[in-house]
Each structure stands twice: as structure tokens, then as C-alpha cells.
TrEMBL record:
Residues 334-360 are annotated as: Disordered. PANTHER family: CYSTEINE-RICH RECEPTOR-LIKE PROTEIN KINASE 3. This is Protein kinase domain-containing protein. The keyword Mitochondrion does not apply. GO terms for molecular function: ATP binding; protein serine/threonine kinase activity. The keyword Phosphoprotein applies. It comes from the Eukaryota. It is found in: Membrane. SUPFAM superfamilies: Protein kinase-like (PK-like) (SSF56112). It comes from Gossypium raimondii (Peruvian cotton). InterPro entries: CR_Ser/Thr_kinase, Kinase-like_dom_sf, Prot_kinase_dom, Protein_kinase_ATP_BS, Ser-Thr/Tyr_kinase_cat_dom, Ser/Thr_kinase_AS. ATP binds at K62.
Length: 377
């Protein structure tokens, strides 16, 4: 057992570029013994705490859960991945700690927390239109880097508003690579257990476990609609035809009322930019993965370098299925199985926290379970 732990440390220390290392005692002191008052949230692999290092640097400390079945391998893979990836729109890894079974990651701390809090949570932030548009564009740049420039290329797998953090200047940074899966240039997809969040899941990924960067592009489209509208992707407090943001967006699009989607709290906004965001979002959420533009093209469209062009067809998953019934079935199924975990963390969908009306996390979801629901339709 001692030898196995030693080998894990050897693997970690062999990573290049090697991240800074912290002692467990140092991180324990920084977080005030991992005080609940410093807890920022709970992720799939453990809790995240705010900490202050001895040099007064404020950090976010991710404490990997000992109970995680893939704890050590996940930790080493995550450190290796994040250490190799650097971009202004990705959360920066500042270091790590590995002492026996204790595995922790140390990230930069983003003082304005998550995008979902800023948009529909209890936040003093008021995001005006230029800020929202820049968040869309910068987030697209971060994803384009992961998909097309990073080596290895990375599929995030869990793109959502709560995994986009905001710095002091409200510049967005994509966080939580704990669910990220890597793939070689030779591979076109990965079939695996689905992990993500219902509402952001691309249909081919949710139903067949077929994962490519196109799943991230779909999720980005949903996030773009959330940024534009200032509301989460599902909200049961609204009228039936407005509960699901994507479905409502298509209804407005078909009735030439798409600007009704814009957040009413926005005093001013650029109509042309708003229409561009909606068109790009609908392109990104096309039912066929091949119809979704690559993120580099999304960046070019948002930047105004090229027209937001492309054929937009209402996805079959909004017409062939009873979309609401399917989603409600999943919500009910998850609610029955996740009560105990929700007592520990009020909103498991979001790593930090969530505003009112956001549906609970529904993943990881086994593909066969999802298929059974669909087959009953």
C-alpha cells in the first residue's frame, strides 16, 4: 500500500510542466481547517474551499473526496491536463497537494464567483449588455482553445453557467475540468457513461453516450440563451410554454418574436447583437452534431468577422418527442434518488450555488436508463 502511494507521487512529480506543490498543513491553515464558512461548493469529486495562503494570496482549494472510486487516477489526470492548458479564459491551476490519500488542487480564486449566480442568483452584480456579450465571446474563445488549440484536445463535458467563473473585471473563465475527457486526434468520439447536466446535454450524448466536442458546442448554445435571457434553462415557476428555455426560444423564433427573449432587466441592448446571439445559439443546438459550427467559427461570428450564417432547422428532439414529458420524467427520477445528497449540498447542479428555479443535477445518468425512458414514449 505504501508502495502504491509512492508510485502515485512519482507519477505526479513527473508531470511537466510541474505545478507548484503545497503541504496539507499549509492548505489546512489557509482554509481555517476547511471551515464550512469557507466552503464554496461541492463538486462530483469533492468540496471546494476559499483559502488565504501565508503570502495573502487568495485561492480556491479543491479537496478530492477520499470516497471517490477513481480518486487517485482522476487527481493525477486532472493535474496533468490542467498543467498543460493555459488560456486567459480558463481557470488557472496554481498548484496541488498529494500526501498519502489526501489529494487537493489549488486554483486561482475568482472573486465574482459563477455566472449562474450573477445571472439568476443572489448577487449584487448587474450585467449590462456589453458585459454579457463579452462573456459569450470570451467563453467561446476558451472552448475554441480547448477543442482546437490545446494539446491534448479536450472535451469539457459539463459546460454550464455554474462552471463559468468571473474575475474582478467580469472576464469569464471556464472551470471544473474534473469531468473533462481527453481524446486523440485519431479518435472521432468517445462512448462512455454520460456525465453532465440535463438541460445542457446534447441529445446524441444523452441517449447514446456519443461524445465529441459537439456536445460542448450544444451546451454553449444553451448558456448563450441563458446569458441573453437572464433565466436558467428550465424554470418550473413559469407558464408551461416558457418552462424550457430552448423550447421557448424556438417558439419565439418561429413567431418572429425573438427579441422577447431578451432579459427585461436590461435597460439597453444592441438588437443586432442580440439577434446574432440567438441565431448562433440555435445553430449550436441543432439536433445533428454535424450541423453545429466549430467553436472557432462561433468566435468569428460573435466577433463580427463573418456572418452568423447556416441553415437553422428546428431539432427533431423538440418535435418527435414529448420534450416536456421526457424532461419531467428525468427530473422526477433524479429527485427520488438524490434527496440525501441534496441535503448535503442544496444545489448539486452547480459547483458554487444556484439561483431560484434551476433544475437539480440529473447526471451522471446511465445511458441505458435514459434510453428506457425514451423507449417508453
Amino acid at each position: 500500500m505504501r508502495r502504491k502511494e509512492y508510485n502515485d507521487e512519482e507519477v505526479l512529480l513527473a508531470i511537466g510542466p510541474r505545478p507548484n506543490t503545497f503541504s496539507y498543513a499549509e492548505l489546512r491553515a489557509a482554509t481555517d481547517d476547511f471551515s464550512p464558512s469557507n466552503k464554496l461548493g461541492e463538486g462530483g469529486y469533492g468540496a471546494v474551499y476559499k483559502g488565504t495562503l501565508s503570502d495573502e494570496t487568495v485561492v480556491a482549494v479543491k479537496q478530492l473526496s477520499v470516497a471517490s472510486q477513481q480518486g487517485k487516477s482522476q487527481f493525477i489526470a486532472e493535474v496533468a491536463t490542467i498543467s498543460a492548458v493555459q488560456h486567459r479564459n480558463l481557470v488557472k491551476l496554481r498548484g496541488c497537494c498529494i500526501e498519502g490519500k489526501r489529494h487537493l488542487l489549488v486554483y486561482e480564486y475568482l472573486e465574482n464567483k459563477s455566472l449562474d449566480q450573477a445571472l439568476f442568483g443572489r448577487s449584487d452584480l448587474r450585467l449590462d449588455w456589453p458585459t454579457r456579450y463579452n462573456i459569450c465571446l470570451a467563453t467561446a474563445r476558451g472552448l475554441a482553445y480547448l477543442h482546437e488549440e490545446s494539446r491534448p484536445r479536450i472535451v469539457h463535458r459539463d459546460v454550464k453557467a455554474s462552471n463559468i467563473l468571473l474575475d474582478a473585471e467580469l472576464c469569464p473563465k471556464i472551470s471544473d475540468f474534473g469531468l473533462a475527457k481527453l481524446y486523440d486526434d485519431e479518435k472521432t468520439h468517445i462512448s462512455t457513461r454520460v456525465a453532465g447536466t440535463i438541460g445542457y446535454l446534447a441529445p446524441e450524448y444523452a441517449m447514446r453516450g456519443h461524445l465529441t466536442e459537439k456536445a460542448d458546442i450544444f451546451a454553449f448554445g444553451i448558456v448563450a440563451l441563458e446569458i441573453l435571457s437572464g433565466r436558467p434553462n428550465s424554470d418550473n415557476s413559469l407558464e408551461d410554454d416558457k418552462i424550457y428555455l430552448l423550447e421557448w426560444s424556438w417558439s419565439l423564433h418561429e413567431n418572429n418574436q425573438i427579441l422577447d427573449l431578451v432579459d427585461p432587466n436590461l435597460v439597453e441592448f444592441d438588437e443586432n447583437e442580440a439577434l446574432r446571439v440567438v441565431r448562433i445559439a440555435l445553430l449550436c443546438t441543432q439536433g445533428s452534431p454535424s450541423m453545429r459550427p466549430p467553436m472557432s467559427r462561433v468566435v468569428a461570428m460573435l466577433a463580427g468577422d463573418i456572418e452568423a450564417s447556416g441553415v437553422i432547422t428546428k431539432p427533431s428532439y423538440l418535435t418527435d418527442w414529448d420534450f416536456r414529458d421526457l424532461t419531467r420524467s428525468l427530473v422526477t427520477k433524479d429527485a427520488q434518488t438524490s434527496t440525501s445528497s441534496e441535503n448535503k449540498d442544496n444545489h448539486n447542479q452547480n459547483r458554487i450555488s444556484s439561483g431560484p428555479g434551476v433544475a437539480p443535477s440529473l447526471c451522471p445518468v446511465n445511458v441505458s436508463e435514459f434510453s428506457e425512458i425514451i423507449e417508453r414514449r
